[in-house]
Write a structure and sequence with these properties.
Layout lengths: L5 H19 L11 E4 H4 L5 E3 L8 E6 L5 H4 L6 H4 L18 E5 L5 E5 L4 H44 L3 E13 L7 E16 L4 E6 L5 E2 L13 H11 L9 H11 L4 E3 L12 E12 L3 H15 L7 H6 L9 H11 L15 H10 L15 H14 L11 H10 L2 H4 L10 H19 L3 H30 L1
Parallel strand pairs: 10-11
Antiparallel strand pairs: 1-11, 2-3, 3-8, 4-5, 6-7, 6-11, 7-8, 7-9
Helix pairs in contact: 1-8, 6-7, 12-13
Length: 491
């Protein structure tokens, strides 16, 4: 009987999780199913919209300058009296088409009515032609400014939407449009950017400028396109291409990658540069394309993570943690007391029975520490308002004092922000927050790293050891006194 290794078990487990996720979460293969999309080629045609190198700030990907529409802009050129009464449209409405009345019944001085055609008067025709040219220029200018203003207002509202729903939405820049009418009707039309990167919006209210900035230059490969029944040929070569492109910056010229990828993916695959019409065909193609998209995170993020975990296990790039080993049924040996003591001594000289809780605590919190020291996992449950955040702050402080690393995750950002404020000020900057992955989050990470570096630079080991010895003595005396008083009460 063939023996299944722990690595095979782990891979099977995560493949099962991915298959289950694919069943409950729809795979999106057409960007038209995203919440919103903006073609950068279209945006650069708008007055006050600047893209890539045309931006006033080189750090920006896109800039939208709020246009000013004056009363002069709103006022059309005055029509001449010679044809004013012949106009068959409202000249104040820029979206209408110029038109005139073809003919009128004109009453002569003798009272006889006679039909007169507009074109009968050459001077009237010439004046109308001159005015119409001026009116069309005015109308086009006003329409352009209004379109730019609508775009500015749209992105202004988008800032508010991302602030409210940012935990469930993702704003991205995409490049390299992969298109294909897949032969399997269950898969259907594929039309998505191959490469993406997270972006965010910045509002300069004083100048009336909304900027789209890259959160970082990291390149994400949209692997989800090829999930759920799409066979990938030459998988090893394509994986190498994907790994290589992720070491580059999203603003680099990616034409070489698109060419190599599509020709490796399909014998008839084509990379098409500079074509405006991007229609999916019988064979896969990649078009030069730049776009912004707003999409929901949902199950896609989990699928991406599971795919990378499976690949990492298969390539021996990931080592199975004790927690995963326990889940897949592998026996995990607890570290010996000697090894535990060695590991503890490497971080500090603290005693095992001392709890370093900076906030008020109860027996339940103390029990959690004892359970964690003997088990791979402990579940603590409780409804809102029962002190879970308070408990986590105590646990984090205790584990940090033991030299341990702690990862805290949450479905939403707000609990993590509340938790950080519960951590004592003295060690708060040792907590590195990753909230949403935006620019502000990256700045907080940089701040934490900077403070950690400064603390290490100022570290005086001898002085700290003396303080630790002194504080331990004080703590021991306090505990002895506490025990004495408790015994006195019992007597």
């Amino acid at each position: 009987m063939e023996t299944i290794t722990p690595t095979d078990k782990a891979k099977n487990f995560f493949e099962y999780m991915l298959a289950l996720n694919n069943l409950v979460g729809k795979v999106i293969r057409d960007y038209s199913e995203y919440e919103k999309n903006w073609n950068l080629d279209d945006m650069m045609l708008l007055e006050g919209c600047f893209v890539f190198d045309n931006c006033h700030n080189e750090e920006n990907l896109v800039e939208i300058h709020r246009p000013t529409i004056t009363e002069k802009d709103k006022t059309p050129p005055m029509p001449h009296n010679i044809f004013k009464d012949w106009l068959n449209f409202d000249p104040k409405k820029e979206n209408q088409k110029p038109a005139y009345i073809v003919g009128k019944q004109i009453e002569k001085a003798d009272g006889v009515k006679k039909e007169e055609l507009f074109i009968d008067d050459k001077q009237r025709m010439h004046a109308y032609g001159t005015w119409t040219a001026q009116w069309k220029e005015w109308a086009e200018n006003l329409k352009n400014k209004k379109r730019s203003l609508e775009k500015y207002e749209e992105f202004f509202d988008l800032i508010t939407q991302l602030e409210k729903e940012g935990e469930s939405l993702e704003f991205i820049y995409g490049t390299g449009l992969f298109t294909w009418n897949h032969p399997d009707p269950k898969i259907g039309t594929i039309r998505l950017p191959l490469l993406t990167s997270k972006v965010e919006l910045d509002l300069d209210a004083a100048k009336g400028i909304i900027s789209v900035k890259l959160v970082d230059q990291a390149v994400a490969v949209e692997r989800e396109i090829f999930s759920g029944g799409i066979s990938i040929p030459n998988i090893q070569t394509i994986n190498d291409l994907w790994r290589d492109v992720q070491t580059r910056e999203i603003t680099d010229d990616m034409n070489d990658f698109f060419t190599r990828f599509i020709q490796t993916f399909d014998a008839n695959g084509r990379f098409i540069d500079g074509q405006t019409v991007k229609t999916p065909g019988e064979h896969p193609s990649v078009y030069t394309h730049h776009m912004l998209s707003l999409r929901t995170k949902n199950a896609r993020v989990v699928r991406d993570d599971l795919t990378q975990i499976i690949e990492g296990i298969g390539n021996d790039e990931l080592e199975l943690s004790d927690t995963v080993a326990s889940i897949i049924g592998e026996r995990v040996e607890k570290a010996s007391e000697e090894n535990s003591a060695t590991e503890t001594d490497a971080g500090n000289n603290f005693e095992d029975d001392i709890l370093y809780f900076p906030l008020e605590s109860n027996e339940q919190q103390k029990a959690i520490i004892k359970r964690i020291s003997h088990h791979q996992g402990v579940t603590v449950q409780g409804p809102p308002g029962t002190g879970k955040t308070h408990t986590i702050a105590n646990l984090v402080s205790h584990f940090l004092s033991e030299g341990k690393k702690i990862l805290i995750t949450s479905q939403k950002e707000s609990p993590l922000k509340v938790l950080k404020n519960k951590i004592p000020q003295e060690i708060r900057d040792l907590c590195v927050p990753v909230l949403g992955g935006g620019r502000e989050s990256l700045q907080e990470i940089e701040q934490s790293i900077r403070v950690i570096g400064e603390k290490l630079g100022e570290l005086d080991v001898d002085r700290l050891e003396k303080e630790i010895t002194r504080d331990k003595d004080v703590l021991k005396k306090s505990r002895r006194e506490e025990a004495r008083l408790k015994n006195s009460l019992k007597e």
